[in-house]
Amino acid sequence: MKNSPAVFFVLILVVIAKYNLSFTKKELVFEEVNGVVAVEAEHFTKQKKTSKRKWYLQSTSTSADVQPDKDGNHAADACGSAYMEILPDTRITHDDSLVHGVNFTNSPGTMAVLDYKVYFNTTGKYYVWVRTHTSGSEDNGVHVGIDGKWPETGQRMQFWGNSPKWQWQSRQRTGEVHTGVEKLIYLNIDKPGLHTISFSMREDGFEFDKWVMEKEFIKPEGEGPEEKRKK
């Protein structure tokens, strides 16, 4: 018996669900305008390096069914009522065991990577801001890179721990200042056109709502600038 078009379509849907594919996400391209680009965390085009930890969508309508995740769902105050979180979360405070390559990595681009497509009209130095919610002192680190590279200026992005609300920060953890130093986190756009901006895990449990790149070091307020998609 020949396979009907309906059966073939169902098989395609099964493959998409099994391998977490998305045709619509691959078409998402955002645009830098007047030195600013803003993107909500859930609007990524690709996720990779997920064998030990993975980014999961949390929203007001659903919570990721992955444990442990002791801090609950914070989507009510997130941009678009949704955010991404690295789970499982086995290290929240200093009292929890640190396991390199499992719940922590200081090597950017090696675990739980999200890719975003951005068209830049303007070259130059862009400061990177992230809106995050930090329930513990060990859930507050991430790395940022560009076009498959992870420069020193995008490593060890650090946030204040135990923040009861979503916050915007742009700080780099240093040996002298563990809470991070401002104006050290930035990426250089050397030519206009399409680029891939990536975020990768440093600590599990990291909650990621939105990110902004801007040429001027101005802290975003509220939900930050609006997204602008490339037409």
Descriptive notes:
The protein is mainly beta and 231 residues long. It has one domain: Jelly Rolls, CATH 2.60.120. 6% of the residues lie in helices and 33% in strands. Strands 2, 4, 5, 7, 10, 13 and 15 form a 7-stranded antiparallel beta sheet that branches. Strands 1, 3, 6, 8, 9 and 14 form a 6-stranded mixed beta sheet that branches. Strands 11-12 form a two-stranded antiparallel ribbon. Strand 11 and strand 12 (181-182) form a beta hairpin. It is globular, with a radius of gyration of 18 Å. Residues 6-25 have low confidence and may be disordered.
Q: Quote the distance from N terminus to C terminus.
A: 45 Å
Question: Would you list the SSEs in sequence order as H and E?
Answer: HEEEEEEEEEEEEEEE
The CATH superfamily appears as Galactose-binding domain-like
Structural class: mainly beta
At the first level of CATH, what is the class? Mainly Beta
Alpha carbon gyration radius: 18 Å
Main sheet record = 7 strands, antiparallel
List keywords for this structure.
mainly beta, Jelly Rolls, 7-stranded antiparallel sheet, 231 residues
What is the compact description of this entry?
With 231 residues, the chain is mainly β. It has one helix spanning 5-18, and strands spanning 30-31, 36-40, 46-48, 54-59, 82-87, 113-120, 124-133, 141-146, 157-158, 167-169, 171-172, 181-182, 186-189, 193-201, 207-214. The chain has one domain (28-214): Galactose-binding domain-like (Jelly Rolls).
